[in-house]
Amino acid sequence: GPRPAHSRDSIAAAAIGIADAEGLDAASMRRVAAALGAGTMSLYNYVPKKEHLLDLMLDAVAGEYRLPSAPSGDVRADLVDLAHQQLGIARRHPWLPALLLVRPSIGPNALRYTDHFLAATAPTGLGGGARMEAMALFNGFITQFAQYEQTAAAGAKWQAEMVGYLGQAAASGEFPHLAQAFATAGPPADPDRAFDRTLDRVISAVLAPAGDT
Asked: Between the CA atoms of 79, 150, 182 and 157, what dihedral angle is there, to the nearest 10 degrees?
């Protein structure tokens, strides 16, 4: 037959560009087709439905990881590198965290990431099942952190009101542990430092041998 006018890579790139600029809802089949200079119905020859377009987008951004040919052997260092790459990808594509929470997708690029994570954590001695669980927890933390960053940035007024409310609750004397936490909390942490500090705890948790399967 005739050579296809578009590739799935170009379709994904067009959809990602729209979603990055205007949000995921803007990346409709009609908008993506227009960006490619194609008819909406012709796009369905490549992507039968919107869910398939989302899968293409997810796997395309998973291709942004720069994975070495083999892990370094330093499990913690390898996971820190993966975590920073993942957070960077989420920051570049603000629509990504919310979509990952409702539509995890395992395409070719995501499979390469998964295989690398399992290889990087192999020196721990954890079984395959435990390392898959560790990956889910690891990815979930980073996704939730990225989404929290977006919420905090978009809702500074709400966040200030919540801090004020918690401060009043702490001062009431009814919640002594909350009061102690507020007394020692200090100024708001830099997001990158907060991420690194919490990431260290998450990595320690996911590498713990208890409950290995």
From this structure: 170
* Residues 6 or more apart in contact with residue 13 via CB below 8 angstroms: 60
Q: Show Cβ contacts of residue 184 under 8 Å, excluding neighbours closer than 6 positions.
A: none
DSSP 211: T
What distance lies between CA 109 and its chain's CA centroid? Answer: 14
**CA angle at residue 99 from 116 to 86, to 5 degrees?**
35
**CA atoms in the 13 A half-sphere facing the CB of 65:** 24
Phi first, then psi, for residue 94 (nearest 5°) are: -60, -20
Which tens digit of pLDDT belongs to each residue from 153-162? 665 666 667 7
pLDDT tens profile 88-136: 999 999 999 999 988 887 899 999 999 999 999 999 999 999 999 999 9
CATH 1.10.357.10 correct for 75-206: yes
Give the separation between CA 181 and CA 201, rounded to whole angstroms. Answer: 18
Q: Domain locations in the chain?
A: 8-62, 75-206
Closest by CA to 207, choosing from 85, 89, 74, is 74
- The two three-digit tokens of residue 179, written as one number: 């009061």
- Domain 8-62 sits in which CATH superfamily? Homeodomain-like (1.10.10.60)
Residue 133 DSSP code: H
Please give the Cα distance from 131 to 140 (Å, whole number).
14
> Rounded CA gap, 89 and 58, in Å?
11
